[in-house]
Amino acid sequence: MAKIIDFQTDPSEYRHWRVDYNGDVANLIMDVDENGGLFDGYQLKLNSYDLGVDIELADIVQRMRFEHPEVKVVVMQSGKDKVFCAGANIRMLGGAEHAHKVNFCKFTNETRNTFEAAEKDSGQKYVAAVKGACAGGGYELALACNHIILTDDSNSAVALPEVPLLAVLPGTGGLTRVTDKRKVRRDLADVFCAMEEGVRGKRAQDWNLVDEVVPNSKFDATVAERAKEFAAATPSKAAKGITLNALKRDIAEDAVHYSLVEVALDRAGRKVTITLNGPDGDVPASVDDLVAQGDQSYLLRLARELDDAILHLRNNEKDLGLWVIRTQGDAEAVLAHEALLLANKDHWLANEILQYWKRVLKRVDVTSRSLVALVEHGSCFAGVLAELLWAVDRTYMMEDEFEGDNRPMAQITLSEANFGTYPMGNDLTRLETRFLGAPEQVTDLKSHIGEQIEAERAEDLGLVTYILDDIDWDDEIRIFMEERASFSPDAMTGMEANLRFAGPETMETRIFGRLTAWQNWIFQRPNAVGPDGALQRYGTGVRGDYNMQRV
Amino acid sequence: MLDLINVSYDTQIPNNVGLSSDKRVLKALEKWHPGYINWWSDLIPDNFQQSLVYLRTAVSVDPKGWAKFDYVKMPEYRWGILLAPQVEDRRIPCGEHAGQPAWQEVPGEYRNLLKRLIVIQGDTEPASVEQQRFLGLTAPSLYDMRNLFQVNVEEGRHLWAMVYLLQKYFGKDGREEADDLLRRSSGSEEAPRMLGAFNEETPDWLSFFMFTYFTDRDGKMQLESLAQSGFDPLSRTCRFMLTEEAHHMFVGETGVGRTIQRTCEVMNAHGITDPYDINKIRDLGVIDLPTIQKKLNLHYTLSLDLFGQEVSTNAANAFNAGIKGRYMESRIDDDHKLTNDTYTVWDLEDGKVVQKQVPALTAINMRLRDDYTRDAAGGVGRWNKIIEKAGIEFEMKLPHESFHRQIGVFAGHNFDPDGNPLSGADYDAKVNDWLPTHADGDFIQSLMKPVYEPGQYASWISPPKVGIDNKPGDFEYVKLHMA
């Protein structure tokens, strides 16, 4: 296998970012190490980034929430002169295989969404302080911040030069945020996205590409002042956070072991079985107890392990196209852990854990693997874990007793959290999305909160795809898996991505659906990636040789 | 009657699949069996249901003694579930998986393809029973009546065999398909049988013999190719079905042969030498040879249609997947993958019948049909021997493949039985010489008078050379129940 991409890191290992914590304001400084690329063959010049840079950023954003709840404003800025960020590294993109480009874009998109949502979810506002060139993925970083300040030094500009320069799209949310978030008029957006040099100064503000333009001489002072103002306007949550220690993880040839998550790899069957285990410790008696448990509290530990497993499998096990998700454990205990969080959702840590689950579940939603959940005897699909049943493409549930199986009867339990705590990217709950044509079904399901729903009932309520008894279970599951593994992975990805997101579009679904799909199409086209395409020719002084046929 | 409440499946159903310990199939069969018995009871006239029929029952798969003969009431027939013995280390014989161990379980990748093949095969089995349901009323002898019922109960057993596979290996879907096999019925407007040829009633005994000779032979060829399947349980099921199918071929071939024999004998006895002296021959209560040829033309061409399109991607997929082989696949000397081979098929170009080369993989149907034609020609030769021996100048012939076709490249075009293209007008002018007319049907029907005395035969058919199970000529094959 090629080198394993590890999504776990910590501040002692950062090469590209540093954070200065000053009370309720943190300065997040991008200072990419040119020679610190994840792979050989390119240098990360001009604060350009690759996946490794983004893994650090994601770690920072996550730690900001859990380890630094005192921070209310994060000022993103450059540690280099004359450049804020030049975007994704072009040589890296030019040299990367298609699958890596796609995975890279997905992860960077998820990271952008994550810090963009930090203001609403966690009371942490990201401010981009842009000085120097801010192009492509660099501007997309700024776009995902909640406030953009641009220096008016007659030189610094924001730009999305991908189209004219590279024949690809600003695919990390750029095109979408310009129109959907910044609400730039579409004809001006067209002008902006087709120009290489970008927009400077007052015009950038007039077009709403940035929130404010500040004279260069006053830039640093204004940024600091603005950070203070924003911080002052945000209520305090906590003075001290918890520590996110390294996960207990053991990557073996055919398995990945965590404390609560077991990942079994079946390479011949091209599938992965992910088992989430129920609580192995007592429910925290109070939120103070929850804080005292820190990163060891059940739902936080489980979320971190599942999150890491998803990222590991997505990036390092691309041939395993089917993920089988199962749970084992005490459903009542899962509900009790969740109930503590729900009862204290105004508490910063309880809130962070719930928000984190929202993000992890969204990661499941946009994972381009066939997903199936098995509700077996002894399983604990309850509350937050029940969300997985409707995140996956199909759900199979055991019906009646199985010979020689004395585990508790398979059942599903809904909690109030299934009705709004973990919305999908389309801003609907998974149940609302599932029952798009029958909203009354969702209302009806509310009356079943807390009920232990066994197979036949679960089928009646539309919560599972198939219920199968002892006689049929093994064979039906095996045949489904074999069939699934035999289909074209491309067709599966396309089909699943289309079926999973019924209902309204949001900026998020537009990024993961429309923008990403177009970008991935372009990433397959010779105009971009062919031997004479723009990505290969970049830096040679010769423009890409385009096939001029419109498709 | 069978005690439906207390069915002891191991004693009531001869089987070599460990039925009594197979919860899955037992549960499924318990639900399916009553429907089957209802289907059977509704089908055959009641007095025949109550009659004692001298039937063979498959009780094991031992080639030396797989069946036993005894009197049995048909609803009490023990429809067994029997698979040919497992061949050790059997390999997938063809296609992209050739050489890999045969599948003992359904490969998920081909589940739907396999299921469809089994359902289509299964659908034909009860269909023929439905088509032949009234023939007992006009049986030319108890011997023939017994043969009819033998064929019927064995087609019933073949339905069981397919239902077993569906219930054993295809889970919920399989059980639904098994139920639908009983829901569809031949000629029904609501839910007809899947293949057109199986929705036509078998109106008379000559049709029955022609059907068993020609159409059951298509079934035999399908079974032969499924017997090559890489899905081992299907292969084993079909291999055993073929042992019974041989009797059906026999009933057809000897039935037509005895009809011809009788015609020749009567012609000779009355000094008629011209086989085309039709009215004179008919007046003697036998069926003239040209009319038998017309029946042959009809049934042979209808059966050719069952093989489907000459060039077929479905057949190619099934072969390449290794779930359906060619006739005698293991004896064919090639790579069994057909990646670069070609095969000669008929085609039409500018209204002319031509032969051309196409990729062999897409011509699997055509190849099986050619094997069928060769197989079918054998009996025709033996019929001609009977005519020759009687000194009559007449020769039965299989018509050209282009004649009277509804499926394939020749469909919608007119040809004579020698394969010459014709205008519509020319075809209409001659078609009554080639295919049976309603008047022919009326005549044959007029001969269909039951003969229920042991050892007696209707006017139009000769007795068999030997009895079933070596029974003497006056053996009472069916003890009729007289209500």
From TrEMBL, chain A:
GO MF entries: lyase activity
Spans through the membrane: none
Pfam families per record: ECH_1
BP-aspect Gene Ontology terms: fatty acid beta-oxidation
Family annotation (InterPro entries): Benz-CoA_dihydrodiol_lyase (IPR017633), ClpP/crotonase-like_dom_sf (IPR029045), Enoyl-CoA_hydra/iso (IPR001753)
Protein name: 2,3-dihydro-2,3-dihydroxybenzoyl-CoA ring cleavage enzyme
Species annotation: Thalassovita litoralis
UniProtKB/TrEMBL annotation, chain B:
GO CC field: cytosol
GO process terms (BP): phenylacetate catabolic process
Gene3D superfamilies from the UniProt entry: Ribonucleotide Reductase, subunit A
InterPro entries: Aromatic_CoA_ox/epox, Benzoyl_CoA_Oase_BoxB, Ferritin-like_SF, RNR-like
GO MF, any single term: oxidoreductase activity
Alphabetical list of PANTHER family matching this protein: 1,2-PHENYLACETYL-COA EPOXIDASE, SUBUNIT C, PHENYLACETIC ACID DEGRADATION PROTEIN PAA
Name of the protein in question: Benzoyl-CoA oxygenase, component B
Organism, scientific name: Thalassovita litoralis
